[in-house]
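Lab notebook, bench 4. The sequencing result for the construct came back, and we need a structural model before the next group meeting so we can plan mutations. Quick request posted to the team channel:

Model the 3D structure of this chain.
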Amino acid sequence: MTGDVAASAAAAGMSVTAAYAKRRREPRFAREWRDAAAAAWERLEAAVLRQVLAEGERPGGAIEIATAMQLLARRPDMPPPPAAPPVRRKGRDVAGRELLRRLSAQARRGGAAEPA
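Done. Here's the predicted structure in token form:
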């Protein structure tokens, strides 16, 4: 349970390619792989929390907090971030129509070319 596929494969006496192939072929092995990956993520989370709570965020520490947070954000079983609020199209459409109206008026007065 190192969280490192190459190290785990070597410890099991197989190549990385063989480990991935076994994961594809054997459902039990794939389930154990997922369990090991989940345990590695939990250890990373715990290590980050320990460091932050004990030492605060300091550059050059055992774990670079920014790097750890980027890794944690990629955790496969994390829920997706909240969706952005919907764009209010009505106001945008009104503004677009007003812009076109003004451009057309300027074109009629001899300004820039008529908008497409």
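The longest helix spans residues 27-55.
Will bring this to the meeting.
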